[in-house]
Design goal:
745 residues; alpha/beta; Rossmann fold; 5 domains; 23% strand
Amino acid sequence: MNEEFETVQIAFQLPIDGIFSYHVSKRFMDRLVLGSRVFAPFRNKIQAGFIVGLGPLDGQPDQLREISLVLDEKPYFNQQLWNLLCWASDYYMVPIGLALKTALPSGSDRKSKPWAILTASGRLHLSQSPAKSLPSSLNRLMKRGVVPLSEIVSETESSFIKEASKKGFIIIEQRITPPRRGLGKQYLPELLNPSENESDSGQKVTLTVAQQNAVDSLDMALEKADYQPFLLFGVTGSGKTEVYLKAIEKALSLGKRALTLVPEIALTPQTARIFLSRFGGGIALFHSKLTDAQKLDEWRRVASGSANIVIAARSGIFLPIPDLGLIIVDEEHDNSYKQEDAFPYNARDLALLRGKLENLCVILGSATPSLETFVNVKNGKINRLDLPSRPHGGPLPKTEILDLKSVFPLKHRKNFLTPNLIKAISKTLEENGQVALFLNRRGFDTLAQCSSCGTVLRCPNCDISLTHHKKSHDLRCHMCGYARTAPPTCPSCSSEKLVFSGVGTQKVEESLIELFPEVRIERLDRDSTMKRDSLDDILKRFRNKEIDILTGTQMIVKGHDFPGISLVGILCGDSSLHFPDFRASEHTFQTLVQVSGRTGRESAGGTVLLQTFDPEHYAIQLAATHDYDGFFEKDSVLRRELFYPPYGHLILIKIQGSNQKKVEEKALQIGRQSRILKKPDEPVSILGPAPSPRKKALGKHRWQIILKSQSRNSVRNLVKRLNAEGVLTAHGMSVSIDVDPVNLV
């Protein structure tokens, strides 16, 4: 830091929208850079904060308080990342402190404590004493190289620390986390064995003409080093991953690094396996399943430039990657890129923004792009690269639509396992093919209801019915995790006529075992993958053809590549079609196309049996023919008429609290004030207030208001006025703003 700056600006990881000026003493001047973490007095406490600017914001240096301590030698973020956070904070209307807390790795805001670090001379000195004569804390210090100072203090005389420090045997540092000795190991999937880790960089991959055209366009963009966004629009199984790999190779050859975002943690091992096979190393992983210490290790590895390629879930968009040249957002349409809690950012949109701020090439990849992305393609804001066919040249799988209404009366029907589907499964197994069955409902029975009084057993915390899990004989809420033993009688009328109905993946699995007792059958859902490594184990065994039939939920859809699947059965294709959400048709279409695309990847074969109660719906019909352009035109007509995104802009105001009456009163107040503060000529529609479609979740009652407009500025300005008037402030409940909401339920 230049000595002419005697003040710095600090942001705290608190839900406040302020940046504060502090005085810097001379002893700290040479240690501070943007992104440094420090201790500073704030609100009568000492808080960890981050340097976000040099020079004062307001006041004179002699009026400012002074920072207390520098906590880290290396910064947590750079100027580019700070610019991204500032933009995101403003756009998503959240305090900058909250954005900072969300973006940085867990533990960066913890309180510090003193650590004793053993030096080389200290190790030599202690090694001259018998281990048995040393306190246990010093033995741990010898073994680990660093221990909390309090452990040594509790076992030695007070003069020991002073003398050891004076002689240079130990160094005492205030740290929030243990001081690291080196960069730590890479947290790559344990499922990778040596044979799978061998680099295939020497293997020759023959690209299709379409793939080569896409690679050529991306190479040119990377060489220019300007912001250029692309949609890699390829049918399922068209080889998008190979195009990604070629683009990464080009970026690395130019001395740049690459970030690949994937929508689900479940996809991370598969992506890591492919990337390790191609590049051999230099890869970092970053996702929510890592421990806090692992996240910190990976964050530091990335920030130091030790990783050339980063694979991450949505939070990876905030990683401080030096010399970044390429961002890939795989399956860009996936809702998982949108965070739903305190800082509701969309990682796909921030990827485009980061590309613009840092002059990067950005690739959005999907077989079923979001309508928002496709409109940007139509408007020329994003370049389109097409992969219209699969590398083997065969057609897309043939889809047969089966009307479930016509088979429900059949007495021998096994849940959604219709005679047609059972016949197709039998034929596939006879031909040594694999089967994937999709049903987006976990559990055994999806409804527990008394046939005497009609009572439905519901979660006391959420507005949903409890799901019956037969193996454990309990009822569970799939939203909050509430569970109770399935009662023998109705809790309302004590009748013994308690009926468990509906179909979940467990019931399908049990029926399959009865029908095909000699066949290897597994289930892939949240319940079957709760144990450590169970997900990786199931995916690996299915990939190695050690499983014949795999039935599961959305986890099957998420981009997995299983070459051996010959038949996909969609047990109920319209389960998400009639949700109270304008995107319900889009989500249904995307899901059906994605799950259909799991078959026929190695040959011209592949069959899909799509069962539905609504076979004439355009989303069903167009998904059966993989007609994305047709779906886009059809759904766009409805969206355009009602000014829904991408032809309009939404802001969702959510009111949640434990007191139902107070939540309702607050929602009504916000609704009234919205209509009062809305200017007469302002083109904003105010929908609500009304109870959320899911009235209660996680013990909180929920109301909402939707603000809709063709003008982004108009809808934002109304929210800003509500904020300025203090209307969105509440006690004993939360009022949150969701800009560009994805989930309206």
